[in-house]
Amino acid sequence: MPILLLAPSFEKSFDFSYIFKTVVTKWYYYVILTVVLTIIICLFFIKKQPKRNNLTDTKKLVYIAILSSFSAVANIFDIPINPSLQLSLVATVGLVAGYLLGAGPAFVVCFIGDLIGGIICPKGPYNPIIAIGTGLLGLIPGIAFSYFRGKDIIKLIVCFLLTSLICSFLINTLAYALMYPKYTTMALSLAMLPGKLLMMLANAVISYFLICTLSRVLPKNDFNFVNKKERDDENIA
Known about the structure:
Helices cover 74% and strands 3% of the residues. The protein has 11 helices and 2 strands, in the order αααααββαααααα. It has a two-stranded antiparallel sheet. The protein is globular and about 55 Å long.
């Protein structure tokens, strides 16, 4: 099968009986995850999400497809910094997706990118919990840029602080604890946190330059925030 040529360990990567073999003994992790997801879902019901764009359904699907492919590439390829530290641009793709499309589509972009990356180049057993955490890399910026006022740079900083805490530290620790209960500890996560924060800082800098560029080159009729920036500049002038 062609897929096995791309990923020889495909079957083992999606062995859910192995992935969830500790579910019974770690049920409280799922309670925590359920609470987090419930809070996020309630946010959408409490306040309708403002539109980030005026894209037609076809254009939106094109943007989702393009960004999902970027997300998949970012999941497959890391930039090595040293033997124990690699720079991943998944968070950058997630922030750009949230900035352009809003929370829901950005979650889809990151989730699909993680899934495709797991199929093409598995780095271990596929874990849906990690996939949800990766999806939040798009959803959290989508919520921040859609719901809240203020300067984009402030929102960007808040987004990366939240994604570092929620996605990298909490959800990923939860996922690995389910799979490797004997080896994953909070102490290990704390030891890895400085490196993760450094990588998030790098992603934040790259993301800032990307959204500054996009806000100037994107079609005015397709994206509401482009027109908003021009109105703000005129008011300042």
